[in-house]
Amino acid sequence: MKKKGKKKLVCFGGGNALSKLILRPFRNNPYLEIVSINSMVDDGGSAGALRREFNTLPAGDIRRHLLALADLPKKERWKEKIWNFRFSREIEFSPQHFGHNFANAFLTALEVNYGFEKALKICHQFLNVKGKCLPATVENTTLFAELEDGKIIKGEFEIDLGGNHNRNLKIKRIFLKPKVRAYFPTLRAIKRADFIVIGPGDLYSSLLPCFLPRGMKKALSLSRAKKIFICPAMTKLGETQGFSIRDFEKEVEQYMGCRLDFVIYNTGIEKRKVERYRKEKEKEFILEPPKINNDLEPNKFIGRNLVSNERMEYEERKLKRVLREIMGV
Fold it and tell me: Is 56 in contact with 112 (CB distance < 8 Å)?
């Protein structure tokens, strides 16, 4: 049962943007109980290397969710520092990923010895997590994408940042192999949710994979929660080039199997911000803001200036204000 006076917020997304813009800002909201959900298909960097070596579930995104919802007393803040510690910068697993992250190794060691569910419970206790961090599935699987020319590409990292395929081709569909079932506690959280937030994050490598396990679509369709999608501020080569706000809406609704109640998008577009953002080395696949359609229903589509004054990145304070208006918290 829900705690009296509290609303249950379920968040879908990857480890970076969701943690920074939603989980941490709302962690201490007295009117919300937060459950975060990630896809469990990460196969790059330290998490991917450990996954391949020990045949475990990837720890990369869920460990970021755990840290974002950590509510540690001052005397235990050392845990936050060690959680992000990397043992070495000499061993390169993939571009821009050096050394094993402590949290990835910690989660892997726990899973090998005690199983994933107990490992996750121990991590919640270790960080004094305020809320819950849940996987979309606890079965090992791999993300695949079919391109518009019929070519199949394998792996979340290749879809996200890889250069071994033609990134100018659009993605026709994504799927999991082998097929897996959704994690039952995750389905239960969706059923009990008052609000479901999807994003921010990369569409095909971060957000939509969350909806692929069996049982997820049905749970989302039956959920009475208000469903909120946060549209990316920029499109990405190899995933969403040429997308409009409507294109994002249609893809999300197709993979969810139900209608969104709200789509939040950015209207604060300035050429200098776009150029500065694109020139940053780590943003090499970032293209331009999504096209804003002329037929967006105002009751569903909420357009605001949501980015920072310097670059085309969502600003925590601005996004939080819009979500609070919708959720009434």
Answer: yes
